[in-house]
Amino acid sequence: MIIDEIVIFLQQTPPFQFLQEQEQRSIAANLSLEFYPKDTVILRQGGSSSDSLRIIKKGGVKISISSESGEDVAIDYRGEGETFGMVSLMGDKQKTTITAIEDTICYLMGKQEFMRLVDTSPVFIEYFLQSHFTKYINKTYTEMRNKSLFYGSSDHILFTTQVGEIAEKDVVTVLEDATIQEAARLMSTRRISSVVVIQDDGVPVGILTDRDLRDKVVSIGRNLKEPVRDIMSPPLIRVDARDYCFEAVLKMLKYNIHHVLVIRDGRLSGVITNHDLMLLQGKSPLSFAKDIENQHTVEGLIPVSRKINNIIGFLLKEGAKASNITKIITELNDRLVRKIIEIGEKQFGQSPLSYCWISFGSEGRKEKTFRTDQDNAIIYANPQTEQQAAAAAQYFEKLTGFVIDSLIKCGFPPCPAGYMASNPEWTQPLNTWKKYFSDWVAAPTAEAVLKSLIFFDFRPIYGDFGLADELKDALRMQLSRQKLLLGHLANMIVKNTSPVGFLKSFVVEKSGEHKNQLNLKIKGVTLIVDIVRLFALERGIKETSTLERIEALRDKHTIMKEYADELEHAFEFIMLLRMHNQLAQLESGEEINNFMNPNRLSNLEKKTMKDAFHLISKIQDLIIQRYKPFII
Amino acid sequence: MSRFAKRADRDTRLLSEADFTIVDTELTGLDEKRDTIVSIGAVRMNGSRINIKDTFYRLANPRAELKRESILVHGITPSDIQQKPDAKTVLEEFCRYCGDSVIVGHFICIDMEFINNELKAAGMQTMKNRTIDTFAIYEWIKKRITDHACFELMPNSNALYEISKCFDIPISGAHNSEMDAFITAQLFQRFMPLFEEFGIRTVDELLAISDLSIRGGDKFCKATETSNF
């Protein structure tokens, strides 16, 4: 009976929770229990090594090392469900001092038992010796999803079904030289909405769909004897049969198509259609995209836009990763913005100068989740004459006013700091933008640093993307010559937090004013975003999304070579946690914010969270070394 | 009652190095003439460490009939014990398990009285282990400490669960002798750091305060005055 209680505890405690129950029982039967009143020194630096691994049942401990000057420096805090004394178990001398910071109860696992588990249980040693993220992140996600209140009847089909499972069947093909009529007859006898067009050698070169027949043949009265080559839809968009259906959805959204080729081992093995996906699950992100496309007025877009918020809950329930969700939300929001601009252009006529609508901030990074403020601007081509300049100013005043108002109607609140295209300061010709950027880079005042954080994540949404590219290139040139701004950014990153002090409150603060005070944004998301932005700017990486930047930096940046995977997992994890938390707030009618009660986390989530913070502080240290002269 | 502790040889072992056996029994009732033992639960402590591996729990087929009210308290029914060995067999094992460790319990004199009665009835030697009463110790400490929350909250309670709750010890598996021994062990474990504060370092020194406290209030050893059987 004593053992039953311990087994229940072990089942909530990594890595023991991953073991078989039989193993858990045998571990439980071999533990002992100790009590340490607050301030007890449990293990002392330089003292003899510990005889057991200690698992904290209740309370918390501080791990500290004495510096040469005899000063006691806290390096970590451990709380319920965490362990300590593992390193000491392996060595001959205790390397740190461990002190109870409140009344603490520990289970003790003897050295022999620990060694037995190390030998017999791979999952056990992995947990202690390998990077936590790569191994445990999926388990953490599973736990998070299972815990979610919104985990209902849905079986997260989109993220668990491989494309091949629903779309791999006989592929109906037609040679590229076949006539339109032959192809249409084939489609109608086989009752299918598409055929894959292949060359003589069987290599697919395009796809012919109902839509092609309607748009390119029937509506314009094209000759039915022409070869299908002339009307098929290239380029071919493919997914791997092993990809999850979600990937197919994303590609359909992105390329505005309804058919995607399925490839297995380099060979065509099927076609997946939006119909397949709709059948698979009742409510699809695809249907929202379609809804947006079908609207021609802002009034029509309002109800559709409101629905986009709901899709986050649906996707969380489906078990989507944070990056999957933000990808879909970005895609849908981008479409909405484009649609509104198109409606505006219809109303006010074509622009006198080519222009590019850009987003920045979280929207620029494709990391928007629940509705956040608008962050947008316009870059337009440099006017050649005074009249052109005047006409442009007049035109953009009308257009931007309309777009911003429409976005507000659709539920995107205005930016309180006025970083919006309707503010004339942020609707400017390319040369002015270059000047803005070079001024910030050359003289990084506090205000310039703040603006560069916001604007340097800009991304083109609509119009002439070439303008945005040119501005990006200019920025890269400026940064390669002037490092001062990067130094300021580095300084700001390392000043953001004192992770150890924060970990302490995270581990043990159960009441008082710091309860509920885990700020997932400032202490998590923002730090990683800032770090990755700094590295991207160092290397002139064009990508703006944090995950894409990490990917691009993987082979180009010494720090990222080592930490890309871990940083990616940490970012995904904190983002997802934040979304689940915000959804819970939304559903319970609370105000959406970035604060989370750490007590709501499971032991495994806490561990993952702490590892994320440790990772961040490790990278902060590396940044300090790199930017020593700039750090003040 | 102090006869269990009155021994010629002194025990100067440090508390941190002594072995303790924390004991609880369940009885058919509280009449020492008629009632007998239904179960014995015990947990071992090596110094301040509770050793989960080394626990003891046995059901015995009692000579006396299980009373209705006692069934309700400990949840052991006649059919649970029908196939169990008699008290003699269980006690033989128990004596072996205890060895010469110091026996600790809440109102331990009651448990020891029943145990020794059974041993006598079976024609065996009574146990001579030293005993420490956690309630006696609690009373002793209470007089000397006032800043611990529990001493303000519960000045007059003698019940194990009430006292344990004040020390933030989780109570579950109520009235099972193994769990109660475990709870008592945790209570004793909470006392350990306090002993150090008062300069009590050896087993002898601790026995002295346990006995002293009992002599000052022999009434605690009347079985009928406690509810915790």
Question: Would you write up a description of this structure?
Answer:
The complex is a heterodimer of chains A (632) and B (229). Chain A contains 26 helices and 20 strands. Chain A has 632 residues and is α+β, with helices and mostly antiparallel strands. Among the domains of chain A are: 2-128, Jelly Rolls (Sandwich), CATH 2.60.120.10; 159-280, CBS-domain, CATH 3.10.580.10; 295-435, Beta Polymerase, domain 2 (2-Layer Sandwich). A four-stranded antiparallel sheet of chain A has the order 1-8-3-6. A four-stranded antiparallel sheet of chain A has the order 2-7-4-5. Chain A starts with a helix and ends in a 6-residue tail after the last helix. Residues 148-155 of chain A have low confidence and may be disordered. With 229 residues, chain B is an alpha/beta fold. Chain B has one domain (2-222): 2-Layer Sandwich (Nucleotidyltransferase, domain 5). In chain B, 41% of the residues lie in helices and 16% in strands. Chain B is built from nine helices and five strands, in the order βββαααβαβααααα. Chain B has helices at 68-74, 78-81, 87-98, 108-121, 134-144, 149-153, 160-166, 177-197, 203-215, and strands at residues 19-27, 37-46, 49-59, 102-105, 131-133. Chain B has a five-stranded mixed sheet with strand order 3-2-1-4-5, with helices on both faces. In chain B, helix 5 packs parallel to helix 8 (177-197), helix 5 crosses helix 9 and helix 7 (160-166) crosses helix 8 (177-197). Chain B is globular and about 50 Å long. The chains are: A alpha+beta (632), B alpha/beta (229). At the A-B interface, helix 1 and strand 1 of A face strand 3 and helix 8 of B.
